[in-house]
Structures are given as structure tokens and as C-alpha cells.
Design goal:
With about 240 residues, the chain is an alpha/beta fold. The chain contains 8 helices and 7 strands, in the order H-H-E-H-E-H-E-H-E-H-E-H-E-H-E. It binds S-adenosylmethionine.
């Protein structure tokens, strides 16, 4: 009798905070991608899936920006509204945006081109891994996570970007005094963020509970959707000791 073939070894996959939807771009996104990705998108070697980062990956940010400057990072920058606004108000900083959904990155490219911004770079990869693997300890001045995917079903909470392990990584990568700004329109996620970040010994809440709305954060369709549905928007600001 023939020995049955062993089952193929499953590809190792960690729990991630996103679902890779079909990454089809519309015509204008395709044009923007082709025209501009060389100017703003940094290629990082991928691991077992397109959006995960290879263990040996490294980026020399000073070389990639052509200057040394404070590093500010956004995870899940979507179509780049906040990135663009913050790049304009922080010309002295080097801004890096992580986004896994390529069509949104293409839309961001059009926006960056319209605003003629040279202090931004984009990485199409998992930003949670990116912060850990592509940044030295105590090297990020500010980190932004605005409206991370809420994963509201209890069985999906493990996929939420903001969790104790990620908080530990962020705290280690922020410079002393560095700032982490967060926003969400899901009350239970907001409570979980507050609890998780309060429990981290290196992070200190800059306010007594919720922060006032970060005035430099433009209103995006995600925030508007939450408001239209009658949800409250919660901002949080923490500082590394
Ligand atoms: C709900 S949207 C919010 C987009 C944007 N921050 C805003 O406020 O309009 C969440 C975004 O985060 C992206 N995302 C989720 N997890 C990510 C990760 N680990 N790394 C990079 N992008 C991620 C998703 O693809 C999506 O574009």
C-alpha cells in the first residue's frame, strides 16, 4: 500500500490587524501608482505574505529622506488625509506611513503630489511589524493610529492593533517624551486602549482620561461614518517617560 503524502505544512501566519481585500486599483489610482510610487513608496523585503516584513529587512531612514530629522509614523494611513495635513504642519519632520491596502496608497500618492510634499515616505506593509523591525529603540518622535480597524466581535478582539504587546513595542520605539496619539469611534475599543496603555509602565496619559480632539487631525470618512451613526469619537494621547 502506498504511504499517503504528508499534508503540506501550513504557512505560518500570525494574527494581523487587517484583511487583505482585493487590491484592484481604479484607473486614476493605477496612474498615480505608476507615476509616483518611485518617489514616495519604500520597498521593504516581504516575508511569507506580501504585507509582512522579512526578518532581515532594514531601512536607513536618513538615507531614504536625504536628511536626518525627527521621525513621525502613522499606521493605517488610509488615503492619506492625516498624513498630508500633518506633513504640511511638520515640515521639520520625516513622516512615514504604513498602509496594507495598495489602492489607498495610490490615492495617497495623488494627494502627496498635489501638495508637493517631500517629507513623506510610504511603506505597503504591516505597520505593527514595521515599527518593531524598521526602527531603532527610542527613535520615533510621534506615532499616530487613527481609527484602527475596530474588530468589534469578541472573538476578533485578538486582531486589534492596539494590544499590550504592541503598546510595549511602541513604548520602546518612542523617544523619551515621544507622543502616541490615537483615535477611535468605538467606545469599547477606546476603553480597552485606555486600559492597555495605562498598564504600560513606560507610557503616561497626557490627560486625565480622554484627550481633546487632536486639532491637526482632519475629519476622514471613517470618523464621519462614526459620527453619522451617532457614535462618540475618543482621542487619547500618551507620552513615553
Ligand atoms: C478604518 S481605516 C482608517 C484609515 C485612516 N486612519 C482614517 O482615519 O481615515 C484602517 C486602515 O488601517 C489599515 N491597516 C490595518 N491594520 C494595518 C496594519 N497593521 N498596518 C498597516 N495598515 C493597516 C487598513 O488597511 C485601513 O486602511
Amino acid at each position: 500500500m502506498m504511504t499517503p503524502m504528508p499534508a503540506a505544512r501550513p504557512i505560518h501566519r500570525d494574527v494581523v490587524s487587517y484583511v487583505r481585500r482585493s487590491a484592484r486599483m481604479n484607473e486614476s489610482q493605477l496612474k498615480a501608482w505608476q507615476k509616483y510610487h518611485h518617489d514616495w513608496v519604500i520597498e521593504v523585503d516581504a516575508a511569507e505574505r506580501e504585507t509582512s516584513i522579512a526578518p532581515h529587512a532594514h531601512v536607513d531612514w536618513t538615507a531614504r529622506f536625504g536628511r536626518q530629522a525627527p521621525l513621525m509614523v502613522e499606521i493605517g494611513c488610509g488615503t492619506g488625509h492625516a498624513m498630508t495635513a500633518l506633513a504640511e504642519t511638520h515640515p521639520q519632520a520625516n513622516l512615514i506611513g504604513f498602509e496594507v491596502f495598495t489602492p489607498s496608497v495610490a490615492s495617497t500618492l495623488s494627494r502627496l503630489a498635489r501638495h508637493n510634499l517631500s517629507n513623506v515616505r510610504l511603506v505597503v506593509a504591516d505597520g505593527a511589524q514595521g515599527v518593531e523591525m524598521l526602527f531603532e529603540p527610542a527613535s520615533i518622535t510621534e506615532l499616530w493610529t487613527f481609527f484602527p480597524d475596530p474588530w468589534h466581535k469578541a472573538r476578533h478582539h485578538k486582531r486589534r492593533l492596539v494590544n499590550p504587546r504592541f503598546a510595549e513595542i511602541v513604548a520602546s520605539r518612542l523617544v523619551p517624551g515621544g507622543v502616541w496619539r490615537l483615535a477611535t469611534d468605538w467606545a469599547d475599543y477606546a476603553e480597552a486602549m485606555l486600559e492597555t496603555l495605562d498598564a504600560n509602565e513606560l507610557l503616561v496619559n497626557s490627560h486625565d482620561g480622554w484627550a481633546p480632539r487632536f486639532e491637526q487631525r482632519p475629519l476622514t470618512k471613517y470618523e464621519q461614518r462614526g459620527l453619522d451613526a451617532g457614535r462618540t469619537v475618543f482621542d487619547l494621547t500618551y507620552r513615553r517617560r
